């Protein structure tokens, strides 16, 4: 499948390890693509949960996906500053239907003041047993937590100074806001 162009929209589908659909985002505007990554933006985007519940995102959020790293990053632009929600997840794939990845439960939240919290450890342990995550997946995820924390601590990738401003301004240009 061809990579979408700047200004086009893609759907995002999150799955669980057992293959069940977890959550979908209907229209994410593509801001940049490369052979390895995709940067997009959700702004009042319709989200559908696996149980059919629907909700709309409250604030603009820049999303970062990579084909090498086992995480994706959501930078939520809020009045009190940018908060980051980082999902430990498989690298993304893109097909005719959507950008897709497997969500592996663990999350890191970074608050505007820089505080970091590892979330959903209990959910990870439960799903690891229920869905029988292989040992190599557990190892890969733990190594990618280390990479992600290094990125956060050292302002790399989506955590770099100016990243949010650059991509939010690009979104405003593309959407004529």
From TrEMBL:
GO terms for molecular function: aminoacyl-tRNA ligase activity; magnesium ion binding; nucleoside diphosphate phosphatase activity; ribonucleoside triphosphate phosphatase activity. It catalyses: a ribonucleoside 5'-diphosphate + H2O = a ribonucleoside 5'-phosphate + phosphate + H(+); a ribonucleoside 5'-triphosphate + H2O = a ribonucleoside 5'-diphosphate + phosphate + H(+). Keywords: Aminoacyl-tRNA synthetase, Hydrolase, Ligase, Magnesium, Metal-binding. Its EC number is 3.6.1.15, 3.6.1.6. Residues 18-156 form the DUF402 domain. Mg(2+) 2 binds at residues 105, 107, 120, 123. InterPro entries: DUF402 (IPR007295), FomD-like_sf (IPR035930), Ntdp-like (IPR050212), SA1684 (IPR016882). The keyword Kinase does not apply. Mg(2+) 1 binds at residues 87, 103, 107. SUPFAM superfamilies: FomD-like. It is an enzyme of class 3 (hydrolase). Gene3D superfamilies: FomD-like (2.40.380.10). Its cofactor is Mg(2+). Pfam families: DUF402. The active site is at residue 23. Has nucleoside phosphatase activity towards nucleoside triphosphates and nucleoside diphosphates. Belongs to the Ntdp family. This is Nucleoside triphosphate/diphosphate phosphatase.
């Amino acid at each position: 499948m061809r990579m979408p162009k700047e200004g086009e929209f893609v759907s995002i589908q999150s799955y669980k390890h057992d293959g069940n659909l977890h959550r979908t985002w209907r229209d994410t505007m593509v801001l940049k693509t490369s052979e390895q990554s995709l940067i997009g933006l959700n702004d009042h985007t319709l989200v559908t949960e696996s149980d059919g519940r629907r909700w709309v995102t409250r604030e603009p959020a820049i999303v970062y996906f990579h084909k090498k790293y086992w995480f994706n990053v959501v930078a939520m632009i809020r009045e009190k500053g940018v908060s980051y929600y980082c999902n430990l997840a498989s690298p993304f794939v893109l097909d005719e239907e959507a950008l897709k990845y497997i969500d592996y439960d663990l999350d890191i939240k970074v608050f505007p003041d820089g505080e970091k919290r590892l979330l959903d450890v209990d959910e990870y342990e439960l799903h690891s047993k229920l869905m029988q995550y292989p040992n190599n997946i557990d190892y890969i995820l733990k190594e990618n937590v280390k990479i992600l924390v290094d990125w956060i601590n050292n302002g790399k990738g989506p955590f770099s100074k100016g990243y949010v401003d650059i991509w939010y301004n690009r979104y405003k240009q593309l959407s004529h806001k």
